[in-house]
Amino acid sequence: MAQTITEKILAFHAGLKEVEPGQLIEADVDIALANDVTAPIAIAEFEKLGVEKVFDKKRVLLIPDHFTPNKDIKSAEQAKILREFAQAQELKNYFEIGRVGIEHVLLPEQGLVGPGDLIIGADSHTCTYGALGAFATGVGSTDLAAAMATGKVWFKVPETIKVVYHGELPAWVEGKDLILHTIGLLKVDGALYQALEMTGETIAALPMYGRMSMANMAIEAGAKNGIIAPDEITLDYVRPRAQRDYTVFASDPDANYCRTIEIDVSKLRPQVSYPPLPDKTRTVDQAAADNIAIDQVVIGSCTNGRIEDFRLAAKLLKGKKAARFVRLMIIPGTQEVYRQMIKEGLTDIFLDAEALISPPTCGPCLGGHMGILAAGERAVATTNRNFVGRMGHPESEVYLSSPAVAAASAVLGRIATPEEIL
Amino acid sequence: MHNIEGKAWKFGDDIDTDAIIPARYLNTSDPRELAKYCMEDADAGFAAKVAAGDIIVAGKNFGCGSSREHAPIAIKASGVACVIAPTFARIFYRNAFNTGLLILESAEAAAAIADGHQVNVDPATGTIKDLTGGQTFQARPVPEFMQKLLDDGGLMAHWRKRLRDDK
Fold first, then answer.
1. C-beta neighbour count of A25 within 10 angstroms
2. Minimal-distance CA residue of chain B relative to A368
3. Would you call A387 and B156 a contact, using CB atoms and an 8 Å cutoff?
4. How confident is the model at residue B167 (pLDDT cuts 50, 70, 90)?
5. Are residues A235 and A336 in the same domain?
6. Cis omega before residue A108 (within 30°)?
7. Considering its fold, how many domains does chain A have in total?
8. Cβ separation of A389 and B22 shorter than 8 Å?
9. Least confident range of A23-27, A67-71, A241-245
10. Average pLDDT, stretch B55-75?
11. CB distance A277–B14 less than 8 Å?
12. Using one digit for the tens of pLDDT, what is the confidence trace for B123-141?
């Protein structure tokens, strides 16, 4: 029977020849990860089971990235639970401040996840690793705890939606714009319980950072996982990093899809998602015409915290300054991204633009710390969610965009097109 | 699992986990602490108004967004006994059962039940009675093993009990 890439990876990890949508399977996980918000509950649940050791100390990953550097005493207590568990269990992949980065930027960069893997994470943006051709999905802390103990998780095999992107990307249009546009078409529950497979000539030419922005936001359409089949671009990224063997899977040409969507990108413009849902997408031109004044710009996150994202922002910010009453924040995803920013002179461009450079953290993306909005304030952010109160006060607003639109907006103090500041 | 009867609290479509429990309160995982802020960004006074046994009746895609298990934990700890919606976001759906929160899918009940109505739910049969409105709806019943899981207080408590009983 013809299979999709998602079905093949699930079948492989369940020890089956093939699987079909709706089938319940028990699968072996390659990686189980949690962060400082979700791990404390997972660890408490793990301890309830009465199992002494995690199933594999190399494959259970703890990444304290949300409220770190510790925001307050309560967060410090949460982070301490992770540290003590990592010590007691002798976990190989626990990352302390100075080594830690935003989990979904850090793990691919460090080669801890790879093509063909089955990855579960107690974080909804775990789906990012689909960009490497892995099956990766977010779970709650209890599901994670069971996997930490047993190395296994049960799934219902999802149906797959295929999105085929045609045409060459116009100037200033990024992977981020493709996924915002796609979520605008699908809506926030358009892929509920389903896999989202992204393919076509546009994807074949898209660099890894753009693919990661896309897979990262599959959850914003409700999808179980987002996935892009590995190709030479993937393998060029994976080869020098991989810490384990990996397996390349691809969908059969005659695989079954519950829905196929064709998108011509050749005339697409950069996208902006209006609050309070990621599916409220408009073109940047519409947003610029709406004359939306802003108070803060955040460039970073697991969606857009990679070196290429900052190169793009720097290209537009070079020789310019953030508008006087706009707080511009640059948040490199990892220490390696930070170092590379310094090496390439990007930090100078950002400092000259009077941006604040933050250590790697999820920070303001989830309204955690490091850049919270007051009532009535508005931010443009390269993050992934613009729900009510997401970055602070319930009466504040978040507009989602690419780093290019965010950089242009910071300079003009309102949502702006990249062309406006050239 | 016995019947639930309580007052309905209505919410709209796409209620996300940030609305259920804002991230500013995620520096703890204590259920009693989380309960104080339950639904705060959707209905600011909810935690003070809700009574034990009450029922949330919401629109489609309830619980979308983050994977935080704090969301069903906060709802359960606030006293809410059941959530009824046409559909639930995938991660929230698993998290609800895993933490012992009863949820039922019924588009008809979610549309028809009005705020403040008295509602009776039978998890075993999936029957939802709008006592104030005088209508009855049928959701898919909760399978017996899932009822046991809920009775035991969630997945881990359920497994611990099963492992102990097997000995």
1. 16
2. B24
3. no
4. low
5. no
6. no
7. 2
8. yes
9. A23-27
10. 97
11. yes
12. 999 999 999 999 999 998 8
CA neighbor of A106 nearest in space, from A70, A58, A65, A136? A65
Rounded to a whole number of angstroms, the distance from the CA of A42 to the nearest CA of chain B is 9
Position B151 scores a pLDDT of 92
Q: pTM to 2 decimals?
A: 0.96
- Whether residues A350 and A243 share a domain: the answer is no
User: Of A263, A292, A316, which one is at a domain's C-terminal end?
Assistant: A263
Residue B162 has pLDDT above 80, yes or no: no
Residues A219 and A94 in one domain: yes
Answer yes or no: are the C-beta atoms of B8 and B116 closer than 8 Å: yes
Instruction: Write out the residue range of the structural domain in which residue A376 sits.
Output: 271-421
* Cβ-based contacts of A38 with chain B (< 8 Å): 67-69
Whether residues A284 and A332 share a domain: the answer is yes
Check residue B145 and give its pLDDT. 82
Summarize pLDDT for A211-238 with one digit per residue, the tens.
999 999 999 999 999 999 999 999 999 9
Residue B40, min C-alpha distance to chain A (Å): 9
What is the average pLDDT across A195-204? 98
Closest C-alpha among A82, A55, A36 to residue A146: A55
Query: Does B146 reach chain A within 8 Å, measured CB to CB?
Result: no
Q: Which of A263, A284, A306 delimits the end of a domain?
A: A263
The CA distance from A33 to B81, in Å, is 31
Distance (Å) from the C-alpha of residue B132 to the closest C-alpha of chain A? 31
Structural contact between residues B16 and B64, judged by C-beta atoms closer than 8 angstroms:
yes
* Cα separation, A271 vs A280, whole angstroms: 10
| Gap between the Cα atoms of B113 and B135, Å rounded | 9
Q: In B, residues 89-118, which contact A (CB 8 Å cutoff)?
A: 89-91, 94-95, 98-99
* Mutate: best of A38, A70, A142, partner B, most B CBs <10 A: A142
Nearest CB neighbour to A140, from listed B23, B42, B94: B94
CB contacts under 8 A, A 317-376 vs B, are 366-368, 372
pLDDT at A56 over 90: yes
Q: What is the pLDDT of residues A381-421, one digit of tens each?
A: 999 999 999 999 999 999 999 999 999 999 999 999 999 99
- Interface contact A140-B69, CB threshold 8 A: yes
**Cα(A190)–Cα(A183) distance, rounded to whole angstroms?**
8
Which chain B residues have a beta carbon less than 8 Å from that of A224?
Answer: 90
What is the CB neighbour count within 10 angstroms for residue A151?
17
Contacts of A75 in chain B (CB under 8 A): 27
What's the CATH number where A394 sits? 3.30.499.10
Q: Is the ipTM of this complex over 0.90?
A: yes
Angle between helices A39-49 and B155-166 (to 10 degrees): 10
Task: Please give the average per-residue pLDDT across B85-108, as a whole number.
Answer: 96
